[in-house]
């Protein structure tokens, strides 16, 4: 069946600009093998190789377990304290090889970073999501500022290569949030606004600013902290590093930890030798601070409005920047032209409610009923006041949905603030008693500023096998918010509000599993998984494996997949013919190999795709308005297939307005399998439109990954994986 012939063609413009085709010399590198005196721990090898790359005196890149450079490493740089490099000769890189292409992109990115860093009026930083942030420093670059904060104009710049070796610049508008204050000043002014990351406000040996994960503030003095390894005080150390007497004497000791070191210990630092890394979230909290004047709050609100640039503004500004870089860095005088590609418009998914009735959005289940029924007994806990009544609109919504499904709900189990005990042991008994009475899902109403700990309530309830849906008391009834609360409550009770009409194609996967990993900065919670059938029917979630790094354990993946195959068998009375495994982020080498081999033995086909939230740039379309050429966001469902790179980029969400904000497409890479890209794109797109817990919005991610992502975050917040053993896997506790 030829899917492409049935799809509508579409012309799409990307924020990418052609630079050059790589020459033979660009594709040639020196290759080195690294010998460690002590075998690195699992998950540490990549970090160690990356750190060695910075010590070689040449631009170096890790490729697999080796290192490559564009110039030979000097003999005196080939050995370190606990490692040694052995030259393996030259290596010809091929852009059709994913690993080679990735390494070449890293080289080109490093070359570009070096050239852009030459200007004294701008600064270059690595972007958290990949690529570079290039911004104008000093007063010239400030677009808006206030008490302790600045917003600088800049660009996010990256490079990309296609399988033919064509190099492109990818450019987008970027706003950098910055504070000129020290940590000391920030905590004096905004003690209630927490810090997550900080940076040195002085240059290190490599002429950069070291970033840290913030730990805690203390009243300790620098002269009282002895650094045993150096035989001097913290004060003496910083004086030797260029600090002034005033900086040292007026500082308190704060504790920080290296961002990239998973097992790094807290390190003593000085409050006046660090500056906060300002974020949008921190600035939003400044606007909520009662001590901040109204004018300042208006300025901050104006910032949030101004950074939501339309695709038209983004592409026009990107074109100017690309032309400047082509001239100054690459010596190319011709103007930059945004890349135009042939794309397709995928058909929308068909959503189904009770009795397979078609609906246009999840909210319609209020009139049609839910696709699948779960628990029918619910508890209600009001920690706001002592009123036993359910919130009016939620109660009304529950009864309407139950009526459309021709069933009665039991809503009599209700408790109020005065019923809830204060003692920890009594609280645990409170939840256990409710559980023994058959209540497994509870609506909890409590204000944000309640003295009760929301997380503690959630964990105590889960220990008793109860899922909780929280709701903030509203000043007046809001039927839209009430619907979403009701949907969350039903999903946590094992209901399935909507399902999908399966894609009609013989090669479609009949079991789809999403994998995600989350971290509490000490351990990673990997193989958090959620699965659905081809029609969107939920198979529930699986417990994560606690691991040492972001690479999934191959054994843990197989355990998860095999459990879900058994669930599939119990529902369908057969094994699946094909699996689609979706990984949030990059697939690491060997992660899925064991699962692939074992599925081969059972003659079960499998495709593995990685879904990347960054790296897809922007997708627009040219239109004429009032006789002028302008850009608008590509329509939802727009896809560009890139068969040579075994990947596609796709629009799965919509901007709020044509002139405010712009959508971020997804980039999906087909890591393993033989299914056509267009079928993978169609099934992936349809899963983004399946959002049972939201009445009016679809997901940006496919539903299985959205749930796996939410689950991994929920698991890391809970922290105690053992408590999840008591909760049914059909209850979507993370929505």
From TrEMBL:
One Pfam family in the UniProt entry = PAZ_3
Q: Which domain of life is it from?
A: Bacteria
InterPro entries from the xrefs?
Ago_PAZ, Piwi, RNaseH-like_sf, RNaseH_sf
Q: SUPFAM superfamilies, from UniProt?
A: Ribonuclease H-like (SSF53098)
Show the coiled coil region(s).
Answer: none
Example GO molecular function: nucleic acid binding
Mind telling me which SMART domains this protein's record contains? Piwi
Residue ranges of the Piwi domain? 441-720
Checking Gene3D superfamilies in the record gives: 2.170.260.50, 3.40.50.2300, Ribonuclease H-like superfamily/Ribonuclease H
Family designation = Belongs to the argonaute family. Long pAgo subfamily.
Recorded protein name is Protein argonaute
């Amino acid at each position: 069946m030829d899917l492409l012939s049935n799809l509508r063609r579409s012309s799409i413009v990307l924020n990418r600009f052609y630079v050059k085709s790589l020459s033979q010399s660009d594709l040639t590198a020196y290759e080195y093998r690294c010998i460690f005196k002590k075998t690195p721990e699992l998950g540490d090898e990549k970090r160690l190789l990356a750190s060695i790359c910075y010590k070689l005196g040449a631009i170096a890149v890790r490729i697999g377990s080796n290192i490559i450079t564009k110039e030979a490493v000097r003999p005196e740089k080939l050995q370190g304290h606990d490692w040694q490099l052995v030259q393996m000769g030259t290596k010809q890189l091929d852009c059709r090889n994913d690993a080679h292409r990735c390494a070449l992109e890293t080289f080109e990115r490093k070359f570009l970073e070096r050239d852009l860093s030459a200007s004294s009026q701008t600064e270059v930083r690595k972007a958290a999501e990949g690529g570079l942030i290039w911004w104008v420093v000093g007063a010239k670059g400030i677009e808006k500022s206030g008490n302790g904060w600045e917003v600088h104009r800049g660009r996010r710049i990256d490079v990309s290569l296609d399988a033919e070796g064509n190099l492109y610049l990818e450019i987008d508008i970027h706003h950098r949030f910055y504070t000129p204050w020290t940590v000391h000043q920030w905590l004096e002014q905004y003690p209630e606004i927490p810090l997550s990351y900080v940076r040195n406000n002085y240059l290190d040996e490599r002429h950069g600013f070291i970033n840290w994960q913030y730990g805690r503030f203390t009243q300790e003095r620098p002269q009282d902290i002895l650094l045993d390894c150096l035989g001097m005080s913290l004060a003496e150390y910083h004086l030797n590093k260029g600090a002034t007497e005033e900086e040292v004497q007026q500082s308190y000791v704060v504790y920080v930890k290296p961002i990239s070191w998973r097992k790094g210990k807290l390190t003593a630092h000085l409050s006046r030798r660090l500056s906060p890394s300002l974020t949008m979230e921190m600035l939003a909290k400044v606007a909520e601070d009662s001590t901040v004047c109204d004018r300042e709050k208006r300025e901050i609100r104006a910032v949030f409005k101004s950074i939501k640039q339309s695709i038209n503004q983004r592409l026009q500004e990107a074109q100017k920047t690309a032309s400047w870089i082509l001239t100054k860095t690459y010596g190319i005088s011709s103007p930059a032209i945004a890349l135009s590609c042939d794309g397709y418009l995928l058909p929308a998914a068909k959503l189904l409610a009770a009795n397979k009735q078609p609906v246009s959005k999840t909210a319609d289940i209020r009139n049609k009923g839910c696709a699948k029924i779960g628990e029918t007994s619910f508890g209600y806990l009001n920690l706001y006041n002592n009123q036993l009544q359910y919130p009016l609109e939620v109660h009304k919504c529950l009864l309407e949905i139950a009526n459309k499904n021709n069933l009665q709900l039991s809503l009599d189990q209700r408790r109020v603030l005065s019923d809830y005990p204060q003692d920890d042991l009594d609280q645990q008994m409170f939840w256990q008693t409710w559980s023994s009475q058959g209540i497994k899902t509870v609506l909890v109403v409590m204000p944000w500023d309640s003295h009760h700990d929301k997380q503690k309530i959630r964990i105590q309830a889960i220990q008793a096998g109860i899922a909780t849906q929280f709701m903030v008391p509203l000043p007046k009834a809001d039927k839209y918010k009430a619907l979403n609360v009701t949907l969350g409550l039903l999903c946590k009770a094992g209901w399935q509000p909507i399902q999908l009409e399966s894609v009609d194609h013989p090669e479609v996967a009949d079991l789809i599993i999403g994998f995600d990993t989350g971290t509490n900065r000490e351990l990673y919670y990997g193989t958090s998984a959620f699965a659905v059938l081809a029609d969107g029917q939920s198979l529930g979630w699986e417990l994560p494996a606690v691991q040492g790094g972001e690479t999934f354990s191959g054994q843990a993946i197989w355990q998860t997949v095999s459990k879900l195959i058994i669930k599939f068998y119990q529902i369908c009375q057969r094994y699946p013919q094909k699996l689609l495994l979706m990984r949030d982020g990059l697939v690491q080498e060997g992660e899925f190999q064991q699962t692939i081999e074992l599925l081969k033995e059972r003659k079960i086909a499998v495709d593995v795709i990685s879904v990347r939230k960054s790296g897809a740039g922007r997708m627009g379309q040219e239109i004429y308005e009032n006789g002028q050429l302008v850009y608008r966001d590509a329509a939802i469902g727009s896809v560009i297939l890139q068969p040579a790179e075994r990947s596609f980029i796709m629009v799965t969400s919509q901007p709020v307005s044509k002139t405010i904000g712009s959508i971020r497409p997804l980039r999906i890479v087909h890591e393993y399998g033989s299914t056509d890209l267009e079928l993978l794109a169609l099934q992936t797109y349809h899963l983004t439109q399946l959002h049972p817990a939201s009445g009016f919005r679809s997901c940006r991610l496919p539903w299985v990954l959205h749930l796996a992502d939410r689950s991994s975050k929920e698991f890391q917040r809970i922290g105690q994986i053992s408590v999840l053993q008591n909760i049914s896997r059909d209850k979507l506790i993370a929505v």
